[in-house]
Design goal:
about 160 residues; mainly beta; 7-stranded antiparallel β-sheet; 3-stranded mixed β-sheet
């Protein structure tokens, strides 16, 4: 589920992921900073979800049940709106995000032990070609619980 709520000139964004898998299925894995793949169509059987401030593959963040909630406060900094025609590339808006993530993955018969991460991102809307909008993110994240770390990242793709 995704929810975007305007708050004057800013936006509050909320995402909720819930996963329940069968014992013979590949487990869910939380961690890393990857957002949605850079595709317009929905992805079936997606098993990896971002939990910023934690490395992907942490044993405590793998299981057949998962829950992840992300809250972001998105603040526009500047509308640049500069583009070139040949090749068709450009940059639109630059914004800052403050985020808080909480989630866990656990076994079918276990209970959740939630992990929290928070941080800040600088985002830019990039356009390559006429129909390919991309999201450039430079971020710093801090994991607050077991397995958490301070992480810097640079990503190019879609965001939620």
């Amino acid at each position: 589920w995704r929810l975007h709520m305007p708050a004057w000139r800013t936006v509050l964004a909320l995402r909720w992921n819930e996963g329940w898998g069968e014992p013979q299925a590949e487990p869910f894995q939380l961690g890393g900073s990857d957002s949605d793949p850079g595709l317009i169509v929905p992805i079936l059987n997606q098993r990896d979800f971002p939990l910023r401030g934690y490395s992907s593959g942490e044993p405590t963040l793998v299981g057949h049940r998962s829950r992840l909630v992300s809250l972001e406060w998105r603040v526009p900094l500047r509308d640049i709106d500069r583009h070139a025609m040949v090749p068709p590339v450009g940059i639109n808006r630059v914004s800052a995000n403050l985020f808080f993530d909480v989630g866990d993955a656990w076994s079918r018969d276990g209970t959740a032990d939630y992990h929290r991460g928070f941080g800040v991102e600088l985002r830019a809307e990039i356009r390559l070609g006429y129909f390919l909008p991309l999201d450039l993110r430079l971020g710093l994240a801090k994991g607050r619980d077991e397995g958490g770390d301070s992480v810097a990242y640079l990503r190019l793709g879609r965001a939620f």
